[in-house]
Specification:
This protein has helices at about 20-30, 40-45, 65-80, 105-130, 150-170, 190-205, 205-220, 230-240, and strands at about 10-15, 35, 55-60, 85, 135-140, 175-185, 250-255. It has about 260 residues and is of the alpha/beta class.
């Protein structure tokens, strides 16, 4: 299916691997031009060699407004505009008793998982408004509606991010900018690899056994009994940012294999 976004310019954060790079691949196949960002810039430059698209790579610290502004400017200078923003960069943050993790731990998650999106919107929405067309998608998590006790720093920042994007959606649609979130759960990425390695070490089992027991004990809603794949999330993102997704606004699309065991969004 033609998503009708050929020659649109997409900015993707956290683009070196995982969901970010999987999304870059799909949009490249759809004919988009890409502005890809990550702190691991050397790895990113190697990765993009396989993409069938015009690409620029920009190293940007999303905790700094000046760095985000410079990234957006680099995209506009190269391609003339930024039409699509897909914000996948983030951290899981510190885990533990919500009252025992430090102020600094909460601030770290807040700056990287929430305020970064505010900075991206500031840097890109004026151009989208002027053009009368835009897409803004942020990656949230199942944790926004199904928070886990030991992940309060992450839960709080991602819940705020979900509310922020919903808030944007009410007004920005007047300018042709559609704002949505995508909420994955237990996707096969470096992040969940790290979680499962820690679990395997703690339980004294193999990596595969750690994944299996985690699914059985912690994520019973995922009846497929596997981790999701980055390209499965990327496919949902691609639809939302496309012309085919022109009536999707203010939504939170779950790509969680049924992990969230609730009807509410």
């Amino acid at each position: 299916m033609d998503l009708k976004i050929k020659d649109r310019v997409a900015l993707i954060t956290g683009a070196t691997d995982g969901i970010g790079f999987a999304t870059a691949k799909i949009l490249a196949e759809e004919g988009c031009k890409l502005v890809l960002s990550d702190l691991r810039i050397d790895e990113l430059k190697e990765q993009v060699k396989e993409l069938p698209a015009e690409v620029i790579c920009v190293e940007a610290d999303v905790t700094k407004q000046a760095a985000v502004d410079a990234m957006a400017k680099a995209g506009r200078d190269k391609f003339g505009s930024i039409d699509i923003v897909i914000h996948t960069a983030g951290v899981t943050g510190a885990k533990g008793d919500p009252l025992e993790v430090s102020d600094e731990d909460y601030v770290e998650a807040w700056e990287i998982d929430f305020m970064s999106a505010v900075r991206l919107a500031r840097a890109t929405f004026p151009g989208m408004r002027e053009k009368g067309w835009g897409r803004f998608v942020c990656i949230t998590s199942e944790n926004t509606v199904q928070p886990y006790w030991e992940e309060a720093t992450y839960n709080t920042a991602k819940a705020a991010l979900s509310a922020f994007v919903k808030n944007l959606s009410y007004k920005e649609a007047e300018y042709g900018i559609l704002c949505n979130t995508v909420a994955p759960a237990f996707i096969e990425t470096d992040m969940t690899d790290g979680m499962m390695r820690q679990r395997a070490e703690k339980l004294g089992v193999s990596f595969e056994e750690a994944v299996k027991s985690f699914l059985e004990e912690e994520r019973p809603g995922i009846v497929q009994k596997r981790r999701g794949q980055p390209d499965e999330v990327a496919a949902a993102i691609a639809l939302i940012v496309s012309e085919r997704g022109s009536f999707i606004n203010g939504s939170n699309m779950r790509v969680d294999g049924g992990s969230v065991q609730a009807v509410q969004n």
